Amino acid sequence: MTVPIVLFTADLRVHDHPPLHTALAASGEVVPLFVRDPAIDAAGFAPPNRRAFLADCLGDLDAALRGRGGRLVVRSGDTVEEVCRVAAEVGADEVHMSAGVSRFALAREARLREALASAGRRLRVHDAVTTVVPPGAVTPAGSDHFAVFTPYFRRWSQVLPRTPLPAPRAVPVPDGVASEGLPSRASVTGVSKGLAAGGESVGRRRATAWWRTGAADYADRHDDLAGDATSRFSPHLHFGTLSPAELVHRARLVGGAGPEAFVRQLCWRDFHHQVLAARPAAAVADYRTRHDRWRSGTAAADEITAWKRGRTGYPVVDAAMRQLAHEGWMHNRGRLLAACFLVKTLYVDWRVGARHFLDLLVDGDVADNQLNWQWVAGTGTDTRPNRVLNPVTQGRRYDPEGVYVRRWVPELGGIAGAAVHEPWKLPAPERARYDYPGPVVTLSEGRERFRRARGLAD
Ligand code: FAD
After folding, report:
1. Are residues 257 and 149 part of one domain?
2. CATH of the domain at 303
3. Does the residue 262 lie in any domain?
4. Which among 384, 301, 297, 298 is positioned nearest to 340, based on CA atoms?
5. Which of 203, 261, 282, 332 has the highest count of CB atoms within 10 angstroms of its CB?
């Protein structure tokens, strides 16, 4: 019997891991492999925050495997070449991996299948590891994917997720398979100061705490900017240190309005993944074009810089952008407001904002990021593509005491309550005390410009 390889990608865990489980059941010994592929860096998908989090995840995965008698084998190079090399070294007949959805992942999978087949080996791709329901498993009549969330959610909810698999007790790995050293977080420069720690152990501890204290109130509190009451599972779901199927399973066992609302959010994740799997071009091109002629030139460039720095003069937008810079993560309501401000009020191409988010977000994910940006820009799946969120009314609603703004924009710390959302309304002498810019554009000007550009009547 030959030793199968388990190629880890966006599934850096030992719990509920179908490729690992199947390979072990078949052979009793496996080679757990991770390939550090420079093509991912070259494509701009490995900025410092995600490299640092990945280093944590690999260290934790290696420790989990060592605790079970094995270890992680790490190689660097082109994934296909490295997997084939290891397969030849250990005489593996089969390579197991989880299915991906991005153009990059699908192309890698196809190349790997072909290269292995030409050497008489087999690639086994496992579905429903990185999503709850595999892309394409539910489709509407006459199409290969759902373009609207609500009907997708209805059908998705009827699919029973896999029963989660336990972590294997032992993971025997043959001796003599060479491995590079593990990357370390300390060697990565340019990391956000407040970046969370990565790894399956951290993720599972967070999940335990969440089911105990956070989930029940989720439906009421998920939009509370200052309360920070969401799960913060997104980086763990991106790197696969938590299993989405296991989370749904658990939520349904716990039951109640909070867990139900939480499951709906996990469905949004699957929704975007099935759109991207069917339309890989949506990562870079409008999913539904509105024929926008986005602003460019010096004025737009200055405003983009102000947006990135958290100096637009709109406190809730600036607070969100500073949270992103400091933590490599941003609250969902902050993401909606910051993104809407860029694409609609400033009328700047969604790709500019999406790139900046991908450069900083620890959960930066092609499907979730690009398709959420398109949703906000009205070029994606939103059924109300021209809605414009007002950062002042939204700030007052979701940060009624101004706590979130004062946390991230400390120069406005002297303004009490919700007045912090409109510093320009303060009397001039008082306003002058704060080192904070005036608005880059008035909201009415921005809104009119956007409506004109989209050919909408006032
Ligand atoms: P919770 O509220 O606890 O939700 C639980 C999980 O549901 C999340 O971890 C996430 O996996 C999923 N989820 C929640 N909302 C969404 C959503 N709108 N779309 C897809 N999945 C969702 N999420 C990413 O994971 N990566 C991204 O790169 C990303 N970019 C975004 C860009 C913009 C402009 C916007 C508006 C949203 C983006 N999101 C992205 C979605 C969402 O903001 C984050 O998933 C969420 O804020 C993560 O926090 P949480 O884990 O506490 O979420």
Report:
1. yes
2. 1.10.579.10
3. yes
4. 384
5. 203
Task: Report d(CA 399, CA 378) in Å as an integer.
Answer: 25
pLDDT at 458: 64
Residue 250 has pLDDT above 70, yes or no: yes
339: Cβ below 6 Å to ligand 1? yes
Does the CB atom of residue 234 touch ligand 1 within 6 A? yes
Answer yes or no: do 22 and 151 share one domain: no
Residue bearing the CA closest to ligand 1, atom 29:
369
> Is any atom of ligand 1 closer than 6 Å to the C-beta of 50?
no
- How many domains does the chain fold into? 3
Model pLDDT, residue 87: 97
Residue with CA nearest ligand 1 atom 43: 332
Q: What's the rounded Cα separation, in Å, for the pair 443 and 346?
A: 9
Residue 183 lies in a domain: no
Measured CA to CA, the distance from residue 248 to residue 244 in angstroms comes to 6
Residue 154 and residue 270 share a domain: yes
Question: Residue 1: is its pLDDT beyond 80?
Answer: no
Judge whether 28 and 172 are in contact, CB under 8 Å.
yes
Is 189 contained in some domain?
no
- Distance of CA 346 from the midpoint of ligand 1 (Å): 23
Between helix 391-398 and helix 315-327 the angle, nearest 10°, is 70
Q: Is the CB of 82 under 6 A from ligand 1?
A: no
Q: Which of 126, 155, 176 is the last residue of a domain?
A: 126
pLDDT tens-digit map of 90-109? 999 999 999 998 889 999 99
Does the pLDDT of residue 198 top 80, yes or no? yes
Atom of ligand 1 nearest to the CA of 235: 25
Residues 135 and 41 in one domain: no
Could you tell me if the CB of 130 is within 6 A of ligand 1? no
For residues 250 and 318, membership in a common domain is answered with: no
For residue 266, which atom of ligand 1 is closest to its CA? 7
pLDDT of 386: 97
Residues 261 and 327 in one domain: no
Is residue 250 domain-shared with residue 265, that is, in the same domain?
Answer: yes
Least confident span in 4-18, 39-53, 276-290, 331-345: 39-53
Both structure tokens of 68:
């079970």
Q: What percentage of the chain carries pLDDT values higher than 90?
A: 96
What range does the domain containing 85 cover?
A: 5-126
Residue nearest to atom 9 of ligand 1 (CA): 234
**Tokens describing residue 376:** 């906000």
Within a domain: 292:
no
Edge to edge, the sheet with strand 5-8 lists 73-76, 31-36, 5-8, 94-98, 122-126
In tens, the pLDDT along 47-81 reads 999 999 999 999 999 999 999 999 999 999 999 99
Question: pTM of the entire structure?
Answer: 0.98
